[in-house]
Write a structure and sequence with these properties.
Helix content: 40-55%
CATH class of the largest domain: Alpha Beta
Pfam families: Thy1
Strand order of the largest sheet: 4-5-7-6
Oligomer: single chain
Largest sheet: 4 strands, antiparallel
Strand content: 5-15%
Number of helices: 19
EC number: 2.1.1.148
Organism: Cloacimonas acidaminovorans (strain Evry)
Protein name: FAD-dependent thymidylate synthase
Distance between the termini: 42 Å
Bound molecules: flavin-adenine dinucleotide
Radius of gyration: 26 Å
Keywords: Coiled coil, Methyltransferase, Transferase
């Protein structure tokens, strides 16, 4: 056996010192692409690629684009700083499943007044002025609420260190920040995922998305021109136009329905698996036994309860908070409809292995943290939240797509989510943990309670990391 480190990501400043056109990840992609049809060793293939950059690029183009083996582009990975993008745009960026993100946290960092003014407002002072005025008001309220919360906690929680107290104050004050707030994030993404992201950005009508697409493509294609091609809006959306078919029933019902949902239920169960415990147990046994799938399930269904209990004890034996439960837990899916604030959604959407469908809509409902009521700023917050939502709804129809900037972290989001039990385990470990933010912890605990009712055995260790440690 032999292991070579063929490459790894290092800072661009060091790469620039090489001052070589060969400093491109395309060579790794090309040499790996050639593995499947060559008798040569990988070392030789890599040497060959180094000798003939243009030929290597041609290999990539042929294999990725002509033959459609896009997985070859996955061997080229980029680390990209994204600075000054709006929180609204992160919605599009972080939809990439096969990519890694670390974003500046509004829980731990104080945000100074820095927000995106949509380029669409450049020659529209009548829209731009009130927008800027309102954004300034929101940032001013953020600062006032932060100071008031900080003072409140000085009295209520004198045991906290300054930094802990300030973080607690930030955690809730940030709910009034608008989604136009600028943020920064580190993104690690392979060329294949990046191509998907570029295409997604090109389908967005936002000028901010177009600017990001242009910057990303220009910078990446200068280093690696052979990996990314289909980046333009090809007009495929997969959406439906209800008005075109003369049926707008869904649209008319939306507003009152969303309002009712916002106030009543945070977690609505949509779909639960039948016999989840038996399905998972059968899935584990299936891998070890001689019987086929149906026979295994049938046999498990008829096992005495005491035997099943013993088997479950074995499944969870020695399970630690950092362990994953077996893949067999992926055989059962749970679906929920969830209502949460934009702030909570910003955390929820970071979980990549689930299906999430976000509803459009501009409900006036807002999630105002209880602490804001304690500092008597609830009415001011409600007014500001209503003002921003109404301003967004009053945009001229051709600019209605700017709506994502006209929301605060307190604005309400409704999503449909489907997760398998393995991902639910992971989600609940992180989000029911004592260090998790309070709103997502609440949501996680409600979801976990529903799952436990449905799958008492399989979900018997479903809890936050901190609880498991205890
Ligand atoms: C208390 C707390 C504080 C946080 N603070 C911040 C913060 O300040 N800034 C910030 O940006 N984020 C923060 N996060 C979010 C966090 O970094 C994760 O993005 C988020 O919790 C999603 O979880 P995940 O990445 O483990 O897994 P998911 O996306 O849910 O994926 C599930 C599992 O799949 C595997 N997986 C998925 N993708 C990959 C991959 N590319 N490579 C290898 N394995 C993969 C992993 O095993 C992972 O556990 C915080 C989270 C918590 C709980």
């Amino acid at each position: 056996m032999k292991v070579n480190i063929a490459g790894f990501n290092i800072d661009k400043e060091l790469i620039d010192k090489l001052n070589s056109p060969l400093a491109t990840p395309e060579l790794i992609s090309a040499s790996y692409a050639r593995i499947s049809r060559s008798n040569k060793s990988i070392e030789e293939l890599r040497k060959e690629a180094m000798k003939e950059l243009e030929k290597a690029r041609k290999t990539n183009t042929n294999i990725i684009f002509a033959m459609g083996h896009s997985s070859v582009a996955e061997h080229s990975v980029f680390n990209i700083d994204l600075i000054g993008v709006s929180r609204a745009l992160t919605e599009l960026i972080q939809r990439s499943r096969i990519a890694s993100f670390t974003e500046k946290s509004q829980r731990y960092v104080t945000f100074s007044k820095d927000y995106v003014v949509p380029a669409e407002f450049a020659n529209r002072p009548k829209l731009k002025q009130p927008y800027k005025k309102l954004m300034d008001e929101l940032f001013a309220e953020y600062e006032l609420s932060f100071n008031a919360l900080n003072e409140l906690y000085k009295k209520q929680k004198p045991e906290l260190k300054t930094r802990e107290r300030e973080c607690l104050a930030k955690e809730d004050a940030r709910y009034i920040l608008p989604l136009s707030t600028k943020t920064q994030m580190g993104m690690t993404i392979n060329a294949r995922s990046l191509e998907n992201l570029l295409r997604r950005l090109s389908k967005s009508p936002l000028k901010e998305a177009a600017e990001l697409k242009e910057l990303l493509y220009t910078k990446v294609s200068a280093i690696a021109p052979s990996l990314i091609r289909y980046i333009d809006n090809d007009d495929y959306t997969g959406k439906v136009d209800l008005e075109k078919v003369g049926f707008t029933g869904f649209l008319q019902q939306e507003l009152p329905w969303v309002k009712e949902l916002d106030l009543e239920n945070k977690v609505r169960v949509i779909n639960l698996p039948a016999n989840a415990d038996d399905t998972i147990l059968a899935s584990i046994i299936y891998q070890q036994g001689e019987l086929n799938w149906n026979e295994t399930k049938e046999t498990v269904a008829h096992l005495p309860r005491i035997i099943k209990q013993q088997l479950w004890n074995q499944v969870f034996k020695d399970l630690k908070p950092w362990h994953k439960v077996p893949r067999a837990f992926e055989t059962v899916d749970f679906s929920f409809e969830l209502t949460m604030s934009e702030s909570c959604w910003a955390q929820f959407k970071r979980h990549r292995y689930c299906t999430v469908l976000r509803k459009a809509g501009s409900s006036l409902a807002a999630k105002i943290p209880p602490a804001i009521k304690a500092i008597n700023r609830e009415n001011i917050w409600t007014k500001l939240n209503n003002k921003i939502i109404r301003m967004g709804s009053a945009l001229p129809p051709k600019l209605a797509y700017l709506n994502p900037y006209f929301r605060t972290n307190a604005s309400i989001v409704t999503v449909f989510v489907k997760m398998n039990l393995r991902e639910i385990y992971h989600f609940v470990r992180l989000r029911s943990d004592e260090n998790a933010q309070w709103e997502i912890r609440e949501l996680s605990q409600l979801m976990a309670a529903q799952v436990k009712k449905n799958a008492p055995q399989a979900a018997s260790f479903l809890c936050g990391k901190s609880e498991m440690n205890r």
